[in-house]
Every structure is written in C-alpha cells, then in structure tokens.
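User: Hello, can you help with two protein structures?

Assistant: Certainly.
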Amino acid sequence: RAASVILSSEVNAMTDSQQPGFKTEPNRIWLPDEKGDMLAEVLFPAEGANIVNITHTFVDDSLRGRGIAGKLMEAAAAELRRQGKKTKLTCPYAVQWFPRHPEFSDILYK
C-alpha cells in the first residue's frame, strides 16, 4: 500500500478531523517533511512471529500539541490489527494512550 507524503506546511494547516499521510514501513510508521527528514514516528519492533512491542513515539517540537502522536498511535494500532499482530507496550505514551482507546484492546498482548 503506497503511503502519501505530507509536507510540514500541510501539517500546520490541518484541522483535528484531518489525518496526516504517514509512511508505513515494517515495524515503523513515520511522518517525513518535504525533504524526507523524519518529523514524527512510532516504532514497534518484532518480538515474535505475531508479537511486537511499541517502544518509542517521537514528535518534533514544531508539531507538538497538534495530536500527531495520537494519530501515529491510531495508525500503528490499525496497522497491527490489519496484520493480525498483538503488541506489548513499553513506550510511555503508548502505555497511557491504549487505556483511553479501548476499541484497540484486542491487539494488546496479555
């Protein structure tokens, strides 16, 4: 599935109802700027055949307060569900995000 690239100027103009175009790679979803440099990312390395661990979420200071981390987490959760994977949570942001989004509780590794 091809991911669209969104320019940082487009992120600045987004409303809460719009979703940024993230790039999806194995075990990573990220947002590039117009030069291809990373502005935001969530990492979820594999820990088994169908188990990953959400270990890290980063959002550049220029985008903080715009809900990008939550959109990254939602994109990661949807992608993991699509792949039939379960996730552990060691990223502090993920640890607090998932209890507020019980619609994704089915992908949590127990």
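That covers the first. Now for the second protein you mentioned:
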Amino acid sequence: IRWDDVKIISEVKKIPSDKILYTNHSEILYFLAKRDSLQLIPKVNMMTTRPDPAYPVLMAKMKDDLKARRAVLVYFDPLLTNTWLSIKDFKKEIPLKAIVMVSDGAIYVG
C-alpha cells in the first residue's frame, strides 16, 4: 500500500478544522492529513476479553457529537488497515449516513 495514494485522506482534508473526527485509525489521520482525531475502541478489551468500560462512554459522546453535527466518522476500509472494528457494529448503535465513499474508506455523519 502506498499511503500517499489513500483516497480517503484527500476527502478528510476537505473537512472543516472545527469538526471533531472519530476514526478507526487516528495515527493515519495525524500523519497523512495533519488532523487530530478520537480513536474508536472495540466493545471488548482485546487483552482481557472483558467489556471495555470506556466503550459506552465513547459511543455516547460520539453519538451526541454526530447528532449535533459537531463531528464526522472517518472509517478506513478494514482490508486496508486490518482493523477489528466493524462499521456494522457502529451502525447498530448509531444511525450513520455515508457522505463520502471511496475505495479505501468512507466518511459518515449522524
């Protein structure tokens, strides 16, 4: 993968700087788009296999921010990044609408 060819990055650069970004790969956004973001976390802690107590807190904040249009969700294709987070899982908890879809990811609003 050539990271300078990641299409979702050019779309992220169009997002106003006052928007909060939630993502499944904050390090990619930081290095390639020069944007801070909030990293999504799985429901279950991968080390302990127990529910992560931070998950419902983050989901509630993300849902509120998306609903108020303060934020967007930048989701990188799992095949591109080997992430364990499924967009289907997030859609079960938060109504999401894709505003940008490219071959390597998508941007969602609430």
